[in-house]
């Protein structure tokens, strides 16, 4: 335990973040101007790990068997202290750069761990802060690979934030997300001359057509929060030849892992039925599923408090409203929330001309105003992490809520 009270520690953290602001801005802009897609984030990996090492962190580069992942630790748990963790995302989108604002996520996380490290040093805290560099959120499931490699074992909490456009969303400490996965489907039939001997053929395009039709009919019986969408990637090129192969890409999502399991089975039934009806074989290649976020209420409440402490103008709706309005995105941080008490709040930046995943949001993610708001998020996460490290009663509340959740559905191989 620290010999300082929590307010003194938070003041130390805030001051350290303020002192580092120029460096944080430089990192932010460097990430933004050098966008890198999933598992190719070598520039981001280098500048973040170099800075953390310079600031006294014990840095493991290329962690968990992923060349662009890292783990950076400060402090010690010898003597019974706890470990808090913060996730830094830094991958971009192909062609449109940081249109999801991951440069801001990395900046906020970096600010948070620098602040906590300063408080640990000054306050003689028995505890540790860990920065996880988590690549490939945009479709690559980097955190899922890290989870499977044991990255988050022993963490008392996992914290991160995500920017959103003020035109389409709100500040939300109790963020939720959709659960789901994408898959590639390959139907294989038999080619034949479409006019001379069509009866000799097995039409793979017919199978995709049946799948698409079946999904369209299925939409009458699915939940309003369910989503199924798909495109045809390739099929036959000549009208005179029965297509032997057809490849489609689909996404299946719902509001919770429990509901996703139900919806996925319905989709698989449609997919297999199309193969049976046409005589094709079918091969489905699923990406790892991104699970829904299970927000820890105690962490979220303290985060909201500390955001407003850093900037009283930051507005939040009531807790009930925040929980009642689900967000229509998916993130591999959802999977982390099943393994450790976690939050994934969203915060608003000014992007009047476009929401996330647009070129307009890419531009907004580089503004001074977005950086200022991002640094405030870093201060709030640092303050929450410090409470977890030094306040035994608060840490117990956080863990008790996590322990009370029914997470048994996550053990079903069908939803992996």
TrEMBL record:
Pfam families documented for this protein: M20_dimer, Peptidase_M20
CDD domains: M20_ACY1L2-like
Record domain Peptidase M20 dimerisation: where: 183-275
Superkingdom to which the source organism belongs: Eukaryota
Signal peptide range: none
Family as reported in the entry's similarity comment: Belongs to the peptidase M20A family.
PANTHER family to which the protein is assigned, alphabetical: PEPTIDASE M20, XAA-ARG DIPEPTIDASE
Protein name: Peptidase M20 domain-containing protein 2
